[in-house]
Design goal:
Length: 211
């Protein structure tokens, strides 16, 4: 089977309100890259109508349904393992990460399979506990000497080779940016302003942020 030029991977949990819009906008953005593409959406044991919304979205989706909730890292790993593209874009499923940025991520890539292009957030609409946790995370980065771009998260472009390496990391929980940097990748950045969540609430929670 011919590999697509681009895979778009998104983990979703209880995103019924935005799932169809996410699918349509990802498909339109992927088409603008000029590459063949696929959408790999991972339903992380949603309890609402997320799956039905994706099935009715009107765009081709490789839908992976997890039998139990694995959290963002676990669902993302599953998506990376299923992605077939030469390049892979990962983004959150709550539409805080604008899919329209996908072509810019490809434009910023230098062609090196060990370069990861991160979409870096210049503005956040998060609760106080989340902002405090992020500040603590930055302090920890400084102590450990980690070279994670400021504002980097899960929204990024990677090569299929790096995606495969990340999918094999058997960690119970992780931050995608930190995991990628730990592999020794080089980084580039594309800044953007992150939108508010569709329903205004974080899926991570304080305990998830600590993990």
């Amino acid at each position: 089977m011919t590999r697509p030029g681009l895979s778009v991977v998104a983990p979703l949990h209880d995103e019924e309100a935005v799932a169809a819009d996410l699918a349509g906008r990802c498909a339109a953005a992927a088409a603008r890259t000029g590459r063949t593409w696929e959408l790999v959406f991972v339903d992380d044991a949603s309890t609402d109508g997320t799956v039905a919304a994706l099935e009715d979205a009107g765009v081709p989706i490789r839908l992976v349904r997890l039998p139990g909730n694995r959290g963002q890292w676990g669902a993302t790993r599953e998506g990376l393992a299923r992605a077939r593209g030469d390049l892979v874009v990962v983004l959150d499923g709550d539409l805080q990460d604008p899919p329209e940025l996908i072509p810019r991520l490809l434009e910023a890539w230098d062609g090196d399979p060990w370069t990861v292009v991160f979409a870096t957030k210049t503005r956040r609409e998060d609760p106080a506990w989340f902002r405090a946790g992020v500040a603590g995370y930055r302090v920890l980065q400084g102590i450990l000497g980690a070279q994670i771009p400021r504002g980097a998260g899960s929204y990024c472009l990677l090569s299929g080779a790096v995606a495969e390496r990340l999918a094999r990391l058997e960690l119970p929980d992780a931050n995608l940016a930190a995991a990628a940097v730990a592999l020794g990748v080089r980084t580039r950045t594309v800044p953007f302003e992150r939108a508010a969540r569709g329903d205004g609430r974080s899926r991570v929670g304080p305990a998830g942020l600590v993990r």
